[in-house]
Write a structure and sequence with these properties.
Largest sheet: none
CATH superfamily of the largest domain: Hypothetical protein, domain 2
Organism: Vreelandella songnenensis
Keywords: DNA damage, DNA repair
Protein name: DNA-3-methyladenine glycosylase II
Number of domains: 2
GO molecular function, one term: DNA-3-methyladenine glycosylase activity
CATH class of the largest domain: Mainly Alpha
Number of helices: 12
Order of helices and strands: HHHHHHHHHHHH
Distance between the termini: 28 Å
Radius of gyration: 19 Å
InterPro entries: Alkylbase_DNA_Glycosylase/TA, DNA_glycosylase, HhH-GPD_domain
CATH topology of the largest domain: Endonuclease III, domain 1
Number of strands: 0
Shape: elongated
Structural class: mainly alpha
């Protein structure tokens, strides 16, 4: 999503939601964020699960030394011990090999996802071992640049939504989805705004 798209979306969101209209002048528009699409992004998603950004970056640096070209056949061909030595756990190696196997077998196509609907993308990604709905929705938002995604399982999003709406507690994922239905067709930008709000909540 470009800055111009975010500006347009935030104007429409502020018109649709008085709480966004109240907070927007204090914290401003969220910055644009995006990620590459394709097999390598799914591999790096596996690497980054449940570890810090710094640790994931260090591991990916070692992986890139072992696998200068990060694609499905290379992952299938490399010895598991080489990936273990790079810092991946055996469980993550299992997920990475499963991802590569699915790509090579044609049961999953990272490059083909952009031709599918949002629901079809989520179904395809969550069919892989090691990938849940949150990972699928993040890929939709930042790699495929889909404008109307709300990853309600994200804790920071729900905390921010509760604060924005001046609730004493954070909403459940189901409640959060219902609370932002009127943000359509810009729920991805609304999510960016909530992350932005979480880090810079006005007093």
């Amino acid at each position: 999503m470009t800055p111009d798209t975010i500006t347009q979306a935030m104007a429409e969101l502020a018109a649709a939601d008085a709480d966004i209209a109240r907070a927007l002048p204090h914290i401003g528009e969220p910055p644009s964020r995006q990620r590459d699409k394709g097999f390598a992004t799914f591999f790096s998603t596996i690497v980054s699960q449940q570890i810090s950004v710094e640790a994931a970056r260090a591991i990916m640096g070692r992986v890139n030394t072992v696998l200068p070209e990060l694609h499905a056949k290379a992952v299938m061909d490399v010895e598991g011990q080489a990936l273990r030595d790079a810092g991946l756990s055996w469980r993550k190696i299992e997920y990475a090999k499963g991802l590569a196997e699915a790509e090579l077998a044609g049961t999953f196509s990272a490059d083909g996802l952009e031709h599918l609907s949002d629901d079809e993308v989520i179904a395809a990604i969550t069919a892989l071992r090691g990938f849940g709905r949150w990972s699928a929705e993040i890929y939709l938002m930042f790699s495929l640049k889909r404008p109307d995604v709300f990853p309600a399982d994200d804790l920071a999003l729900r905390v921010a939504l509760g604060r924005l709406k001046r609730r004493e507690d954070k909403p459940t994922p189901k409640q959060a989805r219902q609370m932002v239905e009127h943000w359509a067709p810009w729920r991805s930008v609304g999510s960016l705004f909530l992350w932005h709000y979480y880090r810079g909540e006005p007093l």
